[in-house]
Amino acid sequence: MKQVIRRGLKEIIVDEVPDPVVTPHHVLVRPHYSLISAGTETADIHTDSLVKEVADNPSHLSKIWAVMKQEGPLSTIAEVRAKFKEYAVLGYSGAGEIIDIHPTVTDLQIGDRVAYGGEGTGHGEIVITGRNLVARMPEGVSFADASMTTLGSIALNAVRIAEIGVGDVVAVIGLGLVGQLVAQLVRAQGGVVIAIDINGDRVDLARSTGADHGLVAGDSTPQQVVALTAGNGADCVIVAAAAKSPIPVQQAVQMSRDRGRVVIVGAVPLDLPRDQMYIKELRLLMARAYGPGSYDPSYEKGGRDYPLPYIRWTENRNMEEFLRLVATKRVTLGPLVSHEFPLEEAPTGYQTIMDPGKKSLAVLLRYPAADSPTPAEQFAPLRRLESGAGSQAKGNDLSVALVGAGNLAKWAHLPNIQKINGVKLRAVYSTHGARGKSYAKRFGAEYSCSDYDEVLNDPNIDMVLITSRHQYHADQALRALAAGKNVFIEKPMAITIDECRALVQAERESTGTLTVGFNRRFSPYYVEQKKLLARRTGPAVINCRMNSPGLVGKFWAADPKYGGAIIGEGCHFVDLIYWLLDSEPVSVAAHSLPLGQDDPIGENNIAATFRYADGSIANLTYCTVGSATSGGERLEVFAPGIGAMSENMKQFWSKGKVVNKKSSWFAEKGYRAQMESFVQDLRSGRAPAVTTVDGARATIGGLLMLESARTGQTLPFDLNDFLTG
After folding, report:
1. 521-724 adopts what CATH topology?
2. Which of 48, 225, 422, 667 has a C-alpha 20 to 30 A away from that of 617?
């Protein structure tokens, strides 16, 4: 399918990408029209020179420096250079017909006319979006009008947050598309609208669609508003402007009445005059996207609705209400459309919306489906695309398919594959078609695909490299083993005991081999510690601490449903300690911060003690509440006559008869060494250094940590009992 892509930082192209595959709680839509958002989308197009971008945003340099300290200069430079060719999807508002539905969606039908939204849907001939981001179009509403539903919902949510009453005087600052819609919706709510913008044409447009007053913004605007309100000031000011200056919000404060309301829906700096806000006792309110449900993955992607008696106006219900207002002519959209382009001319559409001289407002893209009588019947998905970037593997080469185009793949695994002789990236599978194609072109894969079966059914693929999200690991690995593929799976191998059992059994029955990405076994300073412990004459004591402050809030890897930090990241250290000791754990006792909070602090912050078969003990502390400037990863080992410490895979210290200190500028994480080891194992027919049993031990150890913290009990840990059921 054709999709609008931002290539690099500013170039807009229309390119072919694989068609999406419908997933749980989602539908596929063939758009007739989509709307280019002048605010959100153009903010992602960086037309200034690189020097000016850095001058305006010096934080870019600090971010690059922080990454360089973590990943090293060569990887960082390569990644910065790649940004100038990388694909990104733009767009999140459109309307079309449903052409495919996942069985979990039971209240929609193929052929339904719908408006859709959602970050990442993009401007494409086929889009995938969550059920709660789709709203049926009433009879009489055109696809062109319905394509503005997402922006309409944003405006409607701002009006709801503002709590407009009949007769309230509302000043709307900023008359872009959202501001124009806000003005009309305030009027429909019974408010008196004062429309304000620096562009006189937009002020005139707002007046023509129902605004009671219009003002061209200037230094005297607050005084004009006060004069229009008999000296009182506005009951409410809604700031819908997009500006780098704080003047819009400062004027909003000046033109508000005592105990008035200021609602922010636009992107503006909040440099507010505290004294004026205090004297007037103003309320400052933020309007977030389309309404309740925004940025909640369980709502937008998981299909979980909020009960109407408790949350009356969700994202989806706001979308439906906006469409109703359009159908009943309470909102007028025709005059807001300034330009329309066919999909192929999308680059011209973006040039138009970014050119002040074009005086654009709503710019629509029209799709071929708009001219087809039966879009759903003509749906013939193409889910594999040759990239034109790769060369075919030679006879003895090991051909690899990447499953999951994430950051770890592009920072570590794919660059390493390029450096290993006789290993060739053949395919990239990603549910995000544009990202998959971008990775394929960058790393020289022969094709990209959006259907995992394309990889499994390809007889030329020898190894599947799984770097997807944790909840998909086990199923993808099981299917790959069933297809006879070798599997390199990033940790965690699994997130449940049943998945561990299934994978251990599946590998026994498969012609393929599986290894797990426990790279720390191959990190030089941990190898040094293992060599020291191999000479010990008695049990050891290990103290391991990991501070990972990024794993908090709504970040998917912090979600306990998918293993959280303990299964997803803590498994590294359960495995590492076992490997250092070469002794099986026999019990675990753990304590956590308070459990059951909305932000899963408790489940992700645990101190655990493991006891091992040889009498050794280990403390494992995993923390996400520390500061980013605190220490990160530290492991100390003590045994008779032995003491050693490593930190962040950059420092090593040991003391026996002599003191040994080593350090490196950048962390030596072992990714390449493990990949090279697995390739050699496959070629020689040896068992891999990290096995499915190792993967199972690490996951089960994390699960026991969580269970012990929940129950307060010391739990036995017999790996064989768990795996045999």
Report:
1. Dihydrodipicolinate Reductase; domain 2 (3.30.360)
2. 667
